[in-house]
Amino acid sequence: MSNLETDLATSTYGGGTLPKGLRSRMVQGVNGLAVHLLEAGYETPGRPLALLLHGFPDLAYGWRHLMPLLADAGYHVVAPDQRGFGRTTGWVNSYDTPLAPFGLLNMTRDALGLVSALGYQRTAMLVGHDLGSPIAAYCALARPDVFPSVVLMSAPFPGPPALPFNTADSEASPVPPNTDSQQLAAVLAALNPPRAYYQQYLSTRAANEDMWHPPQGLHAFLRAFFHVKSADWPGNKPHPLQARTAPEFAQMPTYYVMDLGQTMAQTVAPFHPSAAEVLASNWLTEPELGVYTAEYGRTGFQGALQAYRVYSDPDLTAELRLFSGRTLDVPSLFIGGKSDWGPYSAPGALEMMRTKATTRMGDIKLIDGAGHWIQQEQPVRLSALLLAFSKGLPVSS
Questions:
Q1: Fewer CB in a 10 Å sphere around the end CB: N or C, the chain?
Q2: Alpha-carbon span 83 to 106, nearest angstrom
């Protein structure tokens, strides 16, 4: 174990903000990682496993309000810092490192390796939020024996990329160049005023430094970012977009479709909550936000940002075509926040998930009083949905 790993393993986590019954620990040798995780319900052996996979810019810590509720219902609840995030080590923190370790299939292996390291044959509950949603989906797609159910949150799963079909007699190239993101960038830049899609910005070399050392300071940036994507910000009135066109995309708030040339820190700064709003934010108090500030202050954002670059990498997209035509056949559930644009940020993805990508999707649930940070904003309502869903499933360890 390196000195850094030793320091992280022995230092107190959460600054006294962890709910009672949660512990922080490191698990070594998980697909090349030393994984930091939070867990609850660990005192009693033989409990069924609930695995919670966070998104961006979140951490295992983001599940802290939900975990005691699931532990009280009888689960051993585990939330890791995913590769690239928090106190998990074993990944290279650089823009110029190869992206393959951050690819969806290797992140799926991370989850599979963690389940195995914990001594389980399968999960009883698998939940993925935001960037954790596609990882959870590929877990269930690739290894339904280990992940026999899945709950996807905020980010719909439209299915794996498809191989060209019935093209043997066509003279045209069966694999068109991967120009979708470039075309979107061009049409958004042509708007008045010119705009840019947030995923494209987050894929740039400058994004890490912009967010790590913003003019307003890291704590103020994170406060504004969490606030503007929550139900606390009155500007969030999400609705389905009709098509993948620039005028439709332009209906989204600037934190999704940014003003061209603006950094994310500049984009969210005008929406920083008032002192009274901060005080009223019982789902993310100042000491709790301080945990995020400390963790991202130490690591920066580059490891977390690699996932956005993975989406536009042609080699890693080609790897996913191994599952071309495969549907998600385990019992599944989608949960969003009523004030979250996430379910609609990829036009058509929600409907594609419901009608084509899954065969056993129980429902699409949107939670009142929640924006993007569902597990922090409305943990009681979320736990009720998760436990009701799980009652229809075989629960075993």
A1: N
A2: 10
What's the pLDDT tens digit per position in 278-300? 999 999 999 999 999 999 999 99
Cα 275 off chain centre by: 28
Q: Which two tokens stand for residue 343?
A: 């379910």
Q: How large is the C-alpha radius of gyration of the chain?
A: 20
Residues 6+ apart with CB under 8 A from 375: 52, 62, 63, 65, 66, 129, 153, 382
Distance (Å, rounded) from C-alpha 44 to C-alpha 199?
42
Domain ranges of the chain: 3-162+320-390, 180-304
Distance CA 354, CA 360 (A): 9
Would the pTM count as exceeding 0.85? yes
The domain defined by 3-162+320-390 carries CATH number 3.40.50.1820? yes
Tens-digit pLDDT profile for residues 121-145: 999 999 999 999 999 999 999 999 9
* Residues 149, 140 contacting (CB under 8 angstroms): yes
Strand 23-30 to 33-40 pairing? antiparallel
Cα separation of the two ends of the chain: 30
Q: Which residues contact 331 (CB under 8 A, 6 or more apart)?
A: 148, 149, 150, 360, 362, 389, 392, 393
Distance separating alpha carbons of residues 328 and 360, to the nearest angstrom:
8
How far apart are the C-alpha atoms of 139 and 133, rounded to whole Å?
10
Q: Under 8 Å CB-to-CB from 110, ≥6 apart: which residues?
A: 30, 31, 33, 35, 80, 82, 83
Q: Which two tokens stand for residue 12?
A: 């107190």
